[in-house]
TrEMBL record:
UniProt organism field: Bradyrhizobium erythrophlei
Recorded GO MF terms: xenobiotic transmembrane transporter activity
Keyword hit for Cell inner membrane: yes
Protein name per its UniProtKB record: Bcr/CflA family efflux transporter
Pfam families in UniProt: MFS_1
Stretches that traverse the bilayer: 106-124, 133-152, 191-209, 221-241, 272-290, 302-323, 335-354, 360-382, 394-413, 425-446
Membrane topology: Multi-pass membrane protein
PANTHER family on file: MAJOR FACILITATOR SUPERFAMILY, POLYAMINE TRANSPORTER 2-RELATED
InterPro entries according to UniProt: Efflux_drug-R_Bcr/CmlA (IPR004812), MFS (IPR011701), MFS_dom (IPR020846), MFS_trans_sf (IPR036259), Sugar_transporter_CS (IPR005829)
Record flagged with keyword Disulfide bond: no
Annotated localization: Cell inner membrane; Cell membrane
Gene3D superfamilies recorded: Multidrug resistance protein D (1.20.1720.10)
Keywords carried by this UniProt record: Cell inner membrane, Cell membrane, Membrane, Transmembrane, Transmembrane helix, Transport
Major localisation: membrane
Amino acid sequence: MASIIRRQFIAAFPLQTVGSSHSRTWVVHRNIALIPLFYREVRTVTDTNADAWVSSKHQPMGFPEFVIVIASIMALNPLAMDMMLPALPDIASTFHVTAANKPQEVLSSFLIGFGIGQFIMGPLSDRFGRRPVLIDGMALYCVGSILAIMSSSFEMLLLARVLQGLGTSATRVIATSIVRDCYAGRRMASVVSLAMMIFIAVPVIAPSLGEALMALTEWRGIFVVLMLYGVFALIWSAVRLPETLAVNERKSLAIRDVLGAFRQTVTNRQTLGYAVAAGGVQGSLFAFVFSSQQVFTQIYGLGHYFPLAFAAAAIGTAIAGFLNARFVGRIGMRVISHGALVGFVAVAGIMLLAAKMGMLPLALFVSLAALMMFAFGLMFANFTSLAMEPQGKIAGTASSLYGSITTLLGIGIGTTIGQSYDGTLLPFATGFFLCTLASLTVVLIVEKGRLFTPHARAAN
């Protein structure tokens, strides 16, 4: 497995010459010429030669293991979301939930904890370091899983889901902060994309895995698996992942300092703009996840086979992660993400038109959904990197605020669309189109009407 990943990284990151017309550079003070095989000495890291550089901050972990660990801790979130999809009808039956859309609260309560928790985890990690906050967050996730297994009421289950969400908020914030500690610019986007290529494969298989577990046991068995995976990720991170934030770079937890860091984040045009745009796009993704079980089983009558249709749509995101990791260093974050956003709007418009005309058979719906998920995969890693790029000195706090904005916006949008489900695809398709159109508008404002402009040229 490691050799396969190693070969893939060599293909994804070809060596390029030092020197560039780009104005922004990062100076590297450590000579890394002795790192074997495809690593080379690079003293000046620019947008064009960043692919040749591997940070020493995550040693003793090599680059492949670093990406896999980042992907593994990030995967706690989609696992906890998507494995639950096949279990929603049984959970409703167990707790005598009769309202048609109320089982969606099992998903939205998790995301509420996830969104709120990110406000806290970033400042804590900037003060105490990445490792302790990450490990404590994963421990909280395991506690929430145990509480879910023991739930005797629907309300207790929702509380457990909030705790799980709070725990995974640490993994989201810390993973992004660790990558930002070690990398910047297009290299950061490449690392995030590689991690997302691995962890985004989780939504493709998670519903099928949940369905398989439901065939062997009841819905509580899913939480047993989630707890075991959390313990595995916790141990791996505790043993292998080093601290990436130096003591002399840590920030105060004084209210004045924390509010100052928040103010620095939200007053940065690029950070706030891309956070809002990402929130709009993520809202459409959450709407798809919230409604997918009802859409595929009630409208298209797939029954227990709906995870296969869900996987067919979600695989587009994994493919996009691979392609983005391969080409973002050459093409640039803006060119790829802006093109994907425009494409997303076009595909959402086609879906809306087809839904209004009543001409949206299963094959067309899955194809359009896969194209939109493909566009999402090209956008989200790059939007994250663009938002975080100006915030290197307060990466933890900025990552927490960015994650909270995108998640809470996404929850609000996704829940609104999900709860408006009326047995047709029209609310779903309308929400998709409006979300992406709003995101495109925000990006146009942030970029002052200039899409597809590379970063260094935009700065000039």
